[in-house]
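Hello Y.,

Per our agreement to keep a running log of every chain we model this quarter, I'm adding this entry. I've kept the format consistent with earlier entries: sequence first, then predicted structure.
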Amino acid sequence: MRNATYIFCILIAGLLLSCTRSDLYARKSKSLDSLNGSVTAMTRELEKIDTSLLKRSITRYTYYKQFVQQNVSDTLSRTEADYLQHFLSAGENLEHVQSNIQQVLLRAQLINSQLQNLATDIRDKSIEETSVGIYSSRERIEAGKITELGYAQQRLFMNAMDEYKNSLKGVELLIQSRNHGDLPVIIKDTISL
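Predicted structure for the entry above:
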């Protein structure tokens, strides 16, 4: 009788442990799916950035910056200096955004792939229970980092574009005052090599 009770208790304990184990796998799998959704949402937001506007703004920034470096050597008024400083700062930030966006998108794609693979492994229970928590917490940390970085790039883009637009007219007036009332004409090479 004691043996039957003992065996019955062991079976109940085993059943409870297997239920919590499968419950752990289900919870971690759902958590990873949620992280995947978060990274995907950030990726979509970054992809909404108007890259043609970004490229045009950087191109104009580059040409105006070159003109100012070559043709403005005398003292500037306080207002002109402020516009120029804001314009240069915004242009540099736009260049940083342009280079960073591609890197963030590539990293997000890698993290999404890893999250999907780990979720599949957890659903298939091909990872030991002790390793599930370790792997999922590492992926959670990396997903959090890339999501934060992606949204930071989006904020930087918006702030830089606002600063760029607000300072553009002042810089164009500065350039026109040094260039006989005209903005620099950009001549594109039509000869193909």
